[in-house]
Amino acid sequence: MTVERIGPPHFGTERETLRAFLEFHRATLAMKCEGLTEEQLKERSSPPSTLSLLALVRHLAEAERAWFRRVFDDNAAPMLWSEKEFDFQAAYDTTGARAEEAFSVWQAEVEHSRRIEREAESLDLAGHQPRWGEDVSLRMVMLHMILEYGRHNGHADFLREGVDGTVGA
């Protein structure tokens, strides 16, 4: 599988720009994982940290779910990797995790997020963030997710270099 990553436009509407940056970051995560074995995806950065590329995929599946599905569709949607509410750390434990499942779940959550954004009449669509107990806009959610991916893609840079020496975006 070859990941196609398209850079964000230099000009565009606010929505087009936010969508493009989020897609760019999603593709970056996929690129960082491309071509690795399951064992390589599970390689930890520096024990005792449980951070690995597979852990990031699982975490970002959870983040997509928490920020799109739970905010706009189903405030009570369960966590993906934990029975405890708001337990985002469970995604980092890849003991017994399978890469195929993690990528499948991540892709499904990304598709769900895309559908929510596409169907929204505007970036002012309001949803309820159950973790905060407050309403938030689609604009805020998209910006949050761009920052979430950007931060974790920085981790993915170091993780990938540690696995096989591959550097660069």
Helix tally equals 5
Tell me the name of the CATH class.
Mainly Alpha
* Number of discrete domains: 1
Mean pLDDT: 94
Percent helix, as a range, is: 55-70%
**Distance between termini?**
17 Å
Outline: globular
The proportion of strand residues reads under 5%
Protein model, in words:
The protein has 169 residues and is mainly alpha-helical. The chain has one domain (25-164): Up-down Bundle (Four Helix Bundle (Hemerythrin (Met), subunit A)). It is 55% helix and 5% strand. It is built from 5 helices and 2 strands; from the N terminus they run H-H-H-H-E-E-H. The chain has helices at 14-33, 38-41, 53-73, 99-119, 138-164, and strands at 126-129, 134-137. It has a two-stranded antiparallel sheet. Helix 1 (14-33) runs antiparallel to helix 3 (53-73), helix 3 (53-73) packs parallel to helix 4 and helix 3 (53-73) runs antiparallel to helix 5. It is globular and about 45 Å long. It starts with 13 loop residues before the first helix and ends in a 5-residue tail after the last helix.
Task: Please outline what is shown here.
The protein is mainly α and 169 residues long.
Q: Secondary-structure map with pairings?
A:
Elements (H helix, E strand, L loop, with lengths): L13 H20 L4 H4 L11 H21 L25 H21 L6 E4 L4 E4 H27 L5
Antiparallel strand pairs: 1-2
